[in-house]
């Protein structure tokens, strides 16, 4: 099967230092790929390059076998993916209007917006909050709004950069379960950056360990976690220790 996204000879340098070097990375339609690594390893840079928020210094990105231009990605193409970050970007209006925002920009008819917003509020268990001002939500509720707002756009690819890290454990567990079943049901290709091994093991099909700007190891999540190699071994062991403590 052709990958939905493929990186070839990607490098990102700043001044004379190499921030990221990825000779090859393919992501398959519908998979959830986890990215883990120490602080400063280049995870966010990789996500920014994959989602075309950052142009690489060199290299090529293919989306469904078509090479993306190095600058000026069309709006139509950008609209095929969505990015969710740790900080929730909530507008000072109701939950309903927050979730509807992207559809309004796309000039979707009102009746359809209503139907879709109601569906996604229900999916994320926040229908009862529809009329509430989104600035008055808890962190977990706000992150549900953020995710509903991304998924309502039916993105082909979803980029998540530590979206759950600010949530307490019970809130996180409930949201992870709901969220995983939604992205599997919708077959949304997902790239998921996290520092949390529990999140990664629960959510992802494959895992890439990024160290000093390079992919040290990539494979099925359970294989990477159970058999870390070279420089990823001390990192994974340290992350596992945190869980057992
Ligand atoms: N535009 C830039 N200019 C200069 N340095 C940069 C730039 N973008 C990233 N860096 C540097 O590249 C390295 C990787 O940054 P990045 O944010 O991708 O790491 P990360 O793995 O996401 O880290 P963290 O886990 O702390 O969020 C860091 O040392 C950062 O300071």
Automatic annotation (TrEMBL):
GO terms for molecular function: ATP binding. SUPFAM superfamilies: P-loop containing nucleoside triphosphate hydrolases. InterPro entries: AAA+_ATPase, ABC_SmlMolc_Importer, ABC_transporter-like_ATP-bd, ABC_transporter-like_CS, P-loop_NTPase. Residues 5-237 form the ABC transporter domain. Coiled coil: none annotated. The keyword Transport applies. The keyword Hydrolase does not apply. Gene3D superfamilies: P-loop containing nucleotide triphosphate hydrolases. This is ABC transporter ATP-binding protein. It comes from Cytobacillus mangrovibacter.
């Amino acid at each position: 099967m052709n990958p939905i996204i493929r990186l070839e000879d990607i490098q990102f340098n700043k001044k004379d230092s190499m921030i990221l070097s990825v000779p090859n990375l393919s992501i398959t339609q519908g998979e959830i790929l986890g990215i883990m690594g120490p602080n400063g390893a280049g995870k966010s840079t990789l996500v920014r390059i994959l989602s075309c928020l950052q142009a690489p210094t060199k290299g090529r990105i293919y989306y469904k076998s078509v090479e993306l231009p190095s600058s000026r990605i069309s709006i139509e193409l950008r609209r095929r993916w969505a990015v969710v970050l740790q900080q929730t970007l909530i507008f000072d209006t109701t939950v309903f209007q927050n979730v509807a925002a992207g559809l309004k920009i796309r000039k979707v008819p009102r009746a359809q917006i209503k139907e879709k917003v109601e569906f996604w509020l229900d999916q994320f268990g926040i229908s009862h909050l529809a009329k509430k001002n989104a600035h008055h939500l808890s962190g977990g509720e706000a992150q549900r709004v953020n995710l509903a707002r991304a998924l309502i756009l039916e993105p082909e690819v979803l980029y998540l950069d530590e979206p759950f890290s600010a949530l307490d454990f019970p809130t996180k567990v409930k949201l992870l379960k709901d969220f995983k079943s939604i992205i599997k049901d919708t077959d949304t290709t997902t790239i998921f950056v996290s520092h949390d091994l529990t999140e990664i093991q629960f959510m992802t099909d494959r895992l890439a360990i990024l160290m000093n700007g390079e992919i040290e190891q990539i494979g099925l999540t359970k294989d990477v976690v159970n058999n870390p190699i070279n420089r990823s071994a001390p990192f994974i062991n340290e992350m596992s220790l945190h869980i057992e403590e």
